């Protein structure tokens, strides 16, 4: 429940109300992101307790929290969140253009990719060091060595870096990574989400293959309930009956998230399409729909890529797309 106080209520009066709520075996926390003076109340609120709360001095309104995801809801946080990832802001009109290879293969491949990604105007570098693969016989990534390469290249080019974490015991290896990525398969790995919530590092949370929007937001809530509010959602396509594309890009999720939540949303057209020639259309559509960023796979030589070569853009394709994305983003801000 949320209670709204008289705007003239002072600090001492707010503290007194919190103490009175504590006497009712309820906990209260201020909501700094709302324009009014509001408290969020935790605990079992009976009809008798509710009547007492409504009669407390300075209480002008009580609201039932409408959504099961509290911290991710716009009800508690009406304004769009802006998440700081290294030297890049995401959300609230700030756009993230994230590019890089699906898998880090070696230093030469990563450096070459990072250089043209940076030169194209992108502001964040992605690269997979730990890879969840459908087959146990597929390349599983370079592990810690890959993270070290990613950190070295990111620092050299002054670009924040993002990479996927797959398990709790890997978290400590990501000290130099600017943003954790939680993959679709781990969206409901609640133990992992809770541990990431105990850090203060941004988390890029991908939507599960068959997850509803509410399930996705509830996963974000697991992270935020532990104290880490630096969550960015990532729509990467959901599994439907369609087989022509790798997944089905749900661009309606952008409008839904903007209505329900204050969290930024980034789109991954690479995994949605699974086909190189479809990525530009999906990317531009996402920008026009109001996405706060894109994360796109690119490789210097996609035909030689160890993983996801068919959906990785060639360097010239990536540069051309990035130019269009920034132009469209600037145009959309004028509307």
UniProtKB/TrEMBL annotation:
<protein>
    <submittedName>
        <fullName>3-deoxy-7-phosphoheptulonate synthase</fullName>
        <ecNumber>2.5.1.54</ecNumber>
    </submittedName>
</protein>
<keyword id="KW-0808">Transferase</keyword>
<dbReference type="GO" id="GO:0016832">
    <property type="term" value="F:aldehyde-lyase activity"/>
</dbReference>
<feature type="domain" description="DAHP synthetase I/KDSA">
    <location>
        <begin position="87"/>
        <end position="333"/>
    </location>
</feature>
<dbReference type="InterPro" id="IPR006268">
    <property type="entry name" value="DAHP_syn_2"/>
</dbReference>
<dbReference type="InterPro" id="IPR052899">
    <property type="entry name" value="Class-I_DAHP_synthase"/>
</dbReference>
<dbReference type="InterPro" id="IPR013785">
    <property type="entry name" value="Aldolase_TIM"/>
</dbReference>
<dbReference type="GO" id="GO:0009073">
    <property type="term" value="P:aromatic amino acid family biosynthetic process"/>
</dbReference>
<dbReference type="Pfam" id="PF00793">
    <property type="entry name" value="DAHP_synth_1"/>
</dbReference>
<dbReference type="InterPro" id="IPR006218">
    <property type="entry name" value="DAHP1/KDSA"/>
</dbReference>
<dbReference type="GO" id="GO:0003849">
    <property type="term" value="F:3-deoxy-7-phosphoheptulonate synthase activity"/>
</dbReference>
